[in-house]
# Entry
Amino acid sequence: MVSQYNHLTIKYLKLINHIGSKRTEWSHYQDDKEFDLGWVINEKSGKLTKQDKIKRKKLDAKKAIKGDLILLCQNNHFFGHRATHVVEIVDEPYEAKCIDDMWTRRVRIVWIAEKPWEKAPLTEDVIGKKFSFRSGNLVNVKASTIYLNLDKLKFE
# Structure
């Protein structure tokens, strides 16, 4: 069956579970068609103050505009980096919210990987092997180290 999403124009990548967290659980959003996507600060990394980190997350959270598509990738301690979602920003940058030092934007799920996510597409198969996530900030897919291959996503 041909998907209405085969023509996706993804603008950004975002890591939602950093490798440093050693998470063994997936962030599941399949219960809701919309959810608040978070920009979480890593208080343990770097030399910036907490307030400076919050300001940077604010700028990054407001970078995307309504309608932009983001490929979400997750790291699972046992199963590695996986591409699990494509989401669309449904609010305007000025509507970004900060709750408990975490900036959020409202998103709608456009595509979600089939379960089990242990078999979801490997991130490197979707974006290439030269790119490596360094944070949970938005990364433009036009970066020279990204080779976006949406054929690896299975659309129903």
Notes: Residues 71 and 86 are 4 Å apart (CA to CA). The helical segments are 50-61, 123-127.
